[in-house]
Amino acid sequence: MSPSKLVSLSEAVSRWVPDGAAVAMGCAFEALIPFAAGHEMIRQEKKRLTLIGPISDILFDQLVGAGCVSRIQAAWVGNVITGSAYPFRRAVEEGRLKVEDHSNLTLAMALKAGAMGLSFMPARTALGSDLFQTNPGLKTLTCPFTGQTLTAVSAICPDVAVVHVQRADALGNSHMWGNLGVTREACLASRHVLMTAEEIVDSEVLLSDPNRVVVPGFRVSAVVHAPWGAHPSPVPGYYNRDHEAFLDYQKQSRTPRGFDRWKEKWVDPVGKGYRYPELLGKDRMEALMIQHRRPSVPVDYGY
Amino acid sequence: MSPSKLVSLSEAVSRWVPDGAAVAMGCAFEALIPFAAGHEMIRQEKKRLTLIGPISDILFDQLVGAGCVSRIQAAWVGNVITGSAYPFRRAVEEGRLKVEDHSNLTLAMALKAGAMGLSFMPARTALGSDLFQTNPGLKTLTCPFTGQTLTAVSAICPDVAVVHVQRADALGNSHMWGNLGVTREACLASRHVLMTAEEIVDSEVLLSDPNRVVVPGFRVSAVVHAPWGAHPSPVPGYYNRDHEAFLDYQKQSRTPRGFDRWKEKWVDPVGKGYRYPELLGKDRMEALMIQHRRPSVPVDYGY
Amino acid sequence: MEDAYTPVELMVTAAAREIADEEVVFVGMRIPLLGFLLAKHTHAPHAVGVYELGVVRDTPAPSSILTMGDLPNLSGASWLANTDDTMGLLQRGLVDVSFIGGAQVDRFGNLNTSYIGGWRSPGTRLPGSGGACDLACLAKRHIIVMVHERRRFKKRVDYMTSPGYGEGPGWRAQAGLPRGGPSAVITTLGIFRFDEDSCEMVLASVHPGVSVETVRSQTGWPLKVAPHLLQTPVPTEAELAVIRRFDPEGYWTGSKKESIPFVEEARSRKKKNIP
Amino acid sequence: MEDAYTPVELMVTAAAREIADEEVVFVGMRIPLLGFLLAKHTHAPHAVGVYELGVVRDTPAPSSILTMGDLPNLSGASWLANTDDTMGLLQRGLVDVSFIGGAQVDRFGNLNTSYIGGWRSPGTRLPGSGGACDLACLAKRHIIVMVHERRRFKKRVDYMTSPGYGEGPGWRAQAGLPRGGPSAVITTLGIFRFDEDSCEMVLASVHPGVSVETVRSQTGWPLKVAPHLLQTPVPTEAELAVIRRFDPEGYWTGSKKESIPFVEEARSRKKKNIP
Predict the structure, then answer these.
(1) pTM for this entry
(2) Neighbour-count burial of D120, counting CB atoms closer than 10 A to its CB (0-12 exposed, 13-18 middle, 19+ buried)
(3) Which of B65, B236, B287, D147 is 20 to 30 Å from A168 at the Cα level?
């Protein structure tokens, strides 16, 4: 048997997310956002991170607010159901944060290039736009076959992809379902994969359905058991989106002082023993849990 | 409700595979090869087809032997467990067949470019090889970011992708599992998708697991119920590979006359009612069926 | 009885009417999301919805949703895949129509959702493109949905996040864009189309109770008006019933004011946790 | 007792010994497939197998398999995905070693599996590259497995399907290849390595009962011999037991002759339908 990769959240973040690291997160867009891992980066007071992701739905904003971030490569940073996010705005407007502006497609292509071991990928988007002014990773290119102008998107290879999955084993095998966004590309493009999981299960569960695996286990550096680790974002099969938490954060983060209060309540108290579910409370968890089950019809991998 | 796309095999091939069409097949490599559909093309005496696929494991050879093909865009044409295939060899050596030589990766990139609406995709393979001599779809390119030499692979957009799946509904929703090869890219790159299926099932089965769907139903033009439609190639969940059939074909196709005898036995007798399973016989089918079941552990898509 | 419908409900209805049956629609957030659901339940039952996070669905979600990533929007979807799969459909030319919003628009339909006041030293940083730039570049046509204010309707946007017709006729082809362009702008005041020859935005329809003069005063360039100016039809009762079924708490559509949640700004609405 | 092992079993054993534990191995067909299974069961239990059809597995198949696409090779795999996923691992530089076969090889390890006699008017058309060109271009190192005959060991291949060291030192980098090159050639007569300076193939080990003179006579250029020539170790009983467990009918390994099924040619073996 290969050695277990199962470690505590603090150990995983301490080892695989050093100061200055380029970190891909939020790669499934609105779902499965690794909030637990992001909050641990805040607790460990990480510095000078580069954050990479399509949209980030307040996680990037929270890390910016906590002073962990010096650069962002993203298509959109904000709060999906309200719009702009204050700490991000403040940081850019005050010149404290460098942003490389992508679209969802150019970011997907940048990670795809990284995943495929290529230095760039072509695209037909963004041509004529000002994204070329604020992203040195975009250039124009002439197609060698058609002579047409295309966008060339420079590869992004993160130091670590931080992903939250539904179920994993101690070896890094995992199942993820729902919309996957750019998760597959981010995992394959990154030097390391730090995986948090709702459940740790027996390997047999995962090997029973190899098409459900997003990235092969040998590419995973650490596995962390983090139930409710994507809250307030939704996790298919486990819990719904907690809209209230997004609205509360928006209100509280309006001022730096309000942001600190939010952090004192939701980030600081979670410790090495990881007791976020306790902080969340039983009633709130119950309200968010799946009410209408819809199990998949199995398939057979026999011989 | 949308109108049903369920048609007979002869109707589907008659409508969606005209003479001269560019047809992608065998996109899952050794598994799920659409032999039933290919044999119907032979019965309908299609002419001047272009065949597109990574490796084809005798299906391309059979269509070449029957005189249906004028051009092949592939990485490998032969019989996986024996090597060279005779009708293909004869056709190339006699100058009757044009081949554009790909590698598996360049073919995957050509279809990926088509699927992504791009005129080309870069790759780092084939550089310095003679594939550039026998494939006008390969050129070298300088990366606009690194200055390195790369291969540019011209897009392939087939007229129709012919794919065999495990289960589908009448609207073109389908589930496919196992190794998928370039199936996803081929379906998305093609103007039309002609789908043959082991089973026609209720839409609810397919909607119960949307991650298992290879191509959205609105991209599918025709659905055909063709049990044992991939025989002698394997179909995960349904039947194993029939090695004997591949060996028999190899022996019989050694001469043009032997090829005709093979065709008379295995292709010609199948009619509009599609009774290939009867031709195969119950004993042979039973020997190939799944003996050791290994069902997937379900997941939940509730809310 | 107060107003029979809210300003946002009127805009949702107008958005829905831009969708024809059997079209493939790349659905954005907020108003377009509701507009698509409305179209599916009225005149466009075979429309297919595509979402940038990697979702395709051709049936309505089984329950009300606040965002495209809410679990009911995944349950029973036709396809759950990757961003490059759904963006591939878009780039390949298989998407008929898409919807995007903006903070600033100009006479050629170019949109800014990135930097107010220029990117070198921005007065205001907005969230950025998301998929908007892609939708504006690659759909066969796209529709812009916006609040109509003079500071937003500028002669030239401060930053072009999502290209419209650029600097006018021929610009898109020159830039290398394969197709498309904006076909309509739906605002809080009216509906605009684009002149085929000049590519300039033209007022095509005013909302009930809005004068042309009001629209002109809120537009930062000399606005042209279509020869046959229409009045935007109000939502029918059937349409309102559908909208309210999918936004039961009025989170997106409830505001009586002309500030719409669609716009990328903080709002001061009563917060509710919509289940 | 006849021979304790067949020529192919010797080659399978030699192939297996080229794999180190924990390496990521891009497994080809036939001899390499068995070689990988053998390595997994002996000295390399943590080796990971990658297959071009979109399969990764780190445990042995639960039953004997004749091809990489046989269902037991999919059952309980670590990853079932797409060709661009597994080829992506390769192109990204994550594959340590790959195996390929050929019909013709030259002194710089270039391989031909496409056209005998040149492509303009080929005497013989072979099946083509498959993944071989990719494996030769992109793995950190690759190993060639071949029948050793003078007509196959040519000064210069008729067509370069899969690059070795091209025309010698510096050629790969010049062509744009990011890494790699052949590290060994395992033939029916011996094992060859490549000189670090000249990139030329050098005889490193002869199989039991084979003389250097025999090897030279079957090689189409003046063959260099390593200063410390070895004799290829014979398979152990434990190794033979594993091979015969995975090829119980001797389909791949059973031949006593030096014609190997690995080679892209018709064979006249007794046919069996291996379950």
Answers:
(1) 0.96
(2) exposed
(3) B236
